Amino acid sequence: MNASARPLLPKGPYLLCDDTLRPELSLGEKAARLLAGGARILQLRMKRTPPREALAAAREVVAACHRAGALCLLNDRVDLALLSGADGVHVGDEDLPPEAARELLGPARLVGVTVRNAEGARAAQAAGADYVGVGPVFGTTTKQVPAPVLGVEGFAAVVRASPLPVVGIGGVALTNIAQVAAAGAWCAAVASDALLAPDIAEQVRRLSAAFDSGLRGASLAGSP
C-alpha cells in the first residue's frame, strides 16, 4: 500500500454536508455554501436520500469540491465513493469494516474511522485507516451516539496517544472549536452549527478563524 499516493487531510474544520439538516436546501446547494466559505474538506452524509438520487448528489458534490480544490469523503458508502470519484470514505461503528473499505478503495483514497479511544485508533491504523474521528467531545443532537462524552481533557488524552491524525467529533460549534484545536485535533467535524447558520459561508469562515486561533493559542502555550 502506498500511503504517499493519498491526499493529505487538510487541517481545520471538517464540514458535514448532511441530508437531515436544512431539507429545504439540496445537497448541492449546501455544499456550494460550505465551499463558498472556504471549506477544504466535506463529508457527504446521506441517510435519507434514495440510492439513485444519492449517486447523482455524490457526483455533483464531489465535482463541486474538486473545482474548489477541496476534498470530499462519503460517509459509509464505499460504492458511491468509487462511482463519484470521491477522495475516500469515513466509516463508523456500524458501517463497513475499515479493512474492507481499504480493500475496495485501493491505496489512492482516504479511509477515516470513528473510534472512542486510543486503542481504537491503533486498531484503525492497523486496518489501513488514514485518520480517526474521536468523540463525542461534547454532547450532540445531530445523531445518537452510544458512547460517553469525552470532554476536552479526555479528548486531548486520546489525541496524545493516537498514532493517526484525529478529527474531533460530536457537538463541535463556533463556541468550542478553538478548544478542540488547542487539544491537538487535526480537524474538527461540524454539522448543525454550520448548516443551520443564517449565513452558512460566513459561519464556515468564522469556524476556520476560531480553529486557527485555537492552534495559535496552543502553540504559544507550548513555547518556552
UniProtKB/TrEMBL annotation:
Pfam entry (one):
TMP-TENI
Residue numbers binding Mg(2+): D76, D95
**Residue intervals of the Thiamine phosphate synthase/TenI domain:** 14-192
Name the reaction it catalyses: 2-(2-carboxy-4-methylthiazol-5-yl)ethyl phosphate + 4-amino-2-methyl-5-(diphosphooxymethyl)pyrimidine + 2 H(+) = thiamine phosphate + CO2 + diphosphate; 2-[(2R,5Z)-2-carboxy-4-methylthiazol-5(2H)-ylidene]ethyl phosphate + 4-amino-2-methyl-5-(diphosphooxymethyl)pyrimidine + 2 H(+) = thiamine phosphate + CO2 + diphosphate; 4-methyl-5-(2-phosphooxyethyl)-thiazole + 4-amino-2-methyl-5-(diphosphooxymethyl)pyrimidine + H(+) = thiamine phosphate + diphosphate
Q: Which cofactor does it need?
A: Mg(2+)
Query: Known InterPro entries for this protein?
Result: Aldolase_TIM, ThiamineP_synth_sf, ThiamineP_synth_TenI, TMP_synthase
The record's cofactor note says:
Binds 1 Mg(2+) ion per subunit.
**Its Gene Ontology molecular function terms?**
thiamine-phosphate diphosphorylase activity
- Cross-referenced PANTHER family: THIAMINE-PHOSPHATE PYROPHOSPHORYLASE, THIAMINE-PHOSPHATE SYNTHASE
**Briefly, what is this protein's role?**
Condenses 4-methyl-5-(beta-hydroxyethyl)thiazole monophosphate (THZ-P) and 2-methyl-4-amino-5-hydroxymethyl pyrimidine pyrophosphate (HMP-PP) to form thiamine monophosphate (TMP).
Q: Which family does it belong to?
A: Belongs to the thiamine-phosphate synthase family.
The protein, known as: Thiamine-phosphate synthase
To which species is this protein native?
Hyalangium rubrum
- The encoding gene is thiE
